[in-house]
Every structure is written in C-alpha cells, then in structure tokens.
Specification:
mainly alpha; 14 helices; 283 residues
Length: 283
C-alpha cells in the first residue's frame, strides 16, 4: 500500500523538509479523515529521533486518535491493511520505554487502549502473555488483564463482522492458560461471560451467524468450564424462543446428517468394489 512506502521515506526527513506537508494538514484539520491520513504518512516520522519534543507533544495525540478509524476500517472489511501501523505503534512506541516516556500521560493512555483493543485482531493470541507482562511498565498500577478484558468486551459489543468476531473469540480463549486468570475479579469475569453469551443466541439483538454462535459456545466452555453442560442445555432450550430460525436449523442438521450418511454409503460401496476386485484377482 502507498503508506508503506511513504512512511519510511518521511521517517528519513528532518522537520524542515516535512513542514510543507504539515502546513497542508493544518489547512485541512476540519476534515474527519485527516487524522487517519496524518497517521498513515507520518506515524514513523513523528516518533523518530529527528523530531524535537515540542513537535512530538503537538502531534502525538493526532496519531493516537487517527489510528482508531484505521482499525475500524479493517474490522468492518475483515482485512489487515493497516497492521503495519499497529505493529509500529505497539512495539516501537507504546511498549518501548524510551519513546513512551517522551509523550504525555493522556496520549500514552490513548495508545495503550488502542493497542489493547486491536491486539486480538492484528496479533496472534500466543503473544498475549508478553503484552500483559509489559503493559504495567507503561501505565503504573494498572491490572493489565482486567483492562484487556474490559476493552475487548466493548469491542465484542460493537463488532458485527463475522470474521472479526471469530478472531476475537479465538484469541480470548488464550486467557484460560494465563496464571492471572484465576485472580481476576468476579465482576470482570461475569461481564465478559455475559458479553460472549449474547453471541450464542440466533436472535436479536446481535443476530450472530452460526459460526460465531458455535465459536462463542466453545469460548465459554474454555474460559468457564464449570457448569458447561447445564449452560449448553440452557443455550439450546433458549432457541425454542426463536421459532423463525427453526426451519433453517432443522434444514442445516438434516443436510449435515444426510451428508454423513451419503459419505458412509460411498465408503461402503468403495470397500465392496475393492473386495470384489481382490476376490476376482485371487480367482
């Protein structure tokens, strides 16, 4: 993409060489898309060693807020076009002690929230323990896991794209392997459980597709294994309250079992033919 070529180029320039571009941005600040374009082009330049402290403090908030619409754009389309922006802001800025201490606390908080909200969408779940371990050094006194759960609850409540929901649900299962999981406050666990449970029902207000419902049930089983069978029974019985979805559900299961029966019949037929050929060769 164009920004992947231009951002490293601007990173090599001094402030005086970027002044003309900055003046153009100043004239267009009223446009809602300008912060995102500013972020795409100048996120590497702003946090480079060539920028003085006054410039950094002046524009860091623009980059921190401009990165959010980029993630929302990716989530809505199920793409990762702006993953390089996330990787740079996460590992080269937010989780870099030297660079993150150079910006104000407000901007630091915005960047941390951006990283936490975007992590499961752009990163592999296996890197979650490393993120939670490094976050407390960025903002003193925070409970990294509870912050992560709180922000991702908000993401799950806002996202309606199937591929993105599946990615978030799969990533949340990693928390069950963390030693901090057993020490999380019951209120935080209950809220996360309620948010995921809202994705198990075929009806409103979320109307999740079948793949999301099954992934949500599996995520609940992994994170909350106690009462798994009773919860599944309640989930399946609650579907009786959505009669409009009965024909589709019945059709899906009938088609599923017919496919299994057909496959079994084909295997039996193939085995019978193989045995017949073997018998003819022996004769």
């Amino acid at each position: 993409f164009f920004y992947e070529m231009l951002a490293p180029y601007y990173e090599t320039l001094d402030t005086t060489n970027v002044d003309e571009l900055l003046q153009s941005f100043h004239k267009l600040w009223t446009s809602p898309h300008i912060p995102s374009i500013f972020t795409l082009l100048l996120h590497r330049w702003l946090f480079s060693d060539r920028v003085d402290q006054s410039q950094l403090l002046k524009y860091a908030n623009v980059v921190a807020n401009g990165a959010k619409p980029l993630r929302r754009w990716d989530v809505r389309r199920g793409e990762t076009r702006f993953k390089p922006v996330f990787l740079y802001l996460a590992y080269e800025v937010t989780l870099s002690p030297k660079k993150v201490q150079a910006i104000t606390e407000d901007v630091r908080n915005v960047l941390v929230l951006y990283v936490v909200q975007s992590f499961l969408f752009y990163e592999t779940p296996q890197r979650l323990p490393d993120l939670l371990e490094r976050l407390p050094s960025v903002i003193k006194g925070i409970n990294a896991l509870e912050l992560f759960m709180q922000e991702n609850c908000r993401e799950l409540e806002q996202i309606s794209v199937e591929s993105a929901l599946l990615r978030y649900l799969e990533g949340l299962e990693t928390m069950a392997t963390l030693p901090q999981w057993n020490r999380v406050a019951k209120v935080s666990k209950a809220r996360l459980q309620s948010t995921i449970h809202s994705l198990t029902s075929p009806g409103g207000p979320r109307y999740p597709p079948r793949s999301v419902r099954h992934a949500a049930i599996h995520t609940l089983d992994v994170l909350y294994p106690q009462g798994r069978h009773a919860r599944r029974m309640v989930i399946y019985l609650s579907r009786l309250m959505h009669p409009l979805f009965w024909p589709k559900s019945v059709g899906h299961h009938v088609g599923h079992w017919l496919g299994i029966v057909w496959l079994w019949a084909m295997l039996q037929q193939a085995c019978t033919k193989a045995k017949e050929r073997l018998r003819l060769r022996r004769d």
